[in-house]
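Entry: Peptidyl-tRNA hydrolase
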Amino acid sequence: MAETWLVVGLGNPGPKYELTRHNVGQMVIDELADRMSASFTQQKQAGARVAEGRLRMGGAKIIAAKPNSYMNVSGGPVSSLARFFKIEPDHVIVVHDELDIPFDTIKLKIGGGHGGHNGVRDVAKALGTPEFTRVRVGIGRPPGRQDPADWVLDPFGATERKTLPILIADAADAVQLIIEDGLTAAQQKAHAPKA
């Protein structure tokens, strides 16, 4: 029987935040849902929108989810979904924005600290372990003296928007690679310098 993975994109709910840097994780989930030709349904018990499917015939079953909660309280929906679908933390992938990684760069890891990311901190607390896979999508630090808290809630700039679809596609590719070939193979591809 093919295994099941829970892939969660962190972000904030509602149209006001939809296109902001903080919601890039949810943009990746939309891309995965498109690739699976799956539509989202409300999973009321968990407080999330969920799209289920496979990225290829006979491949792993994927539960792609976007919590309805705000970023800093993402843990509740993630742990509820993991319980509901009986998925262990080692089969949970969290896709999130990362200030300390330059824009248009993706880094993959399992476990470790939260690096000041409150959404990741809350997921680790709710799951009772930091040992889940993270797909960290670089948004870079704000220019000048802009507060990072404001920066993450701003929409992507015009220049960024030109390459954003490629970044989102790369992150979705990374998720697929983790599921199909394992983290090490996915890291080798995602972390390789761009040609």
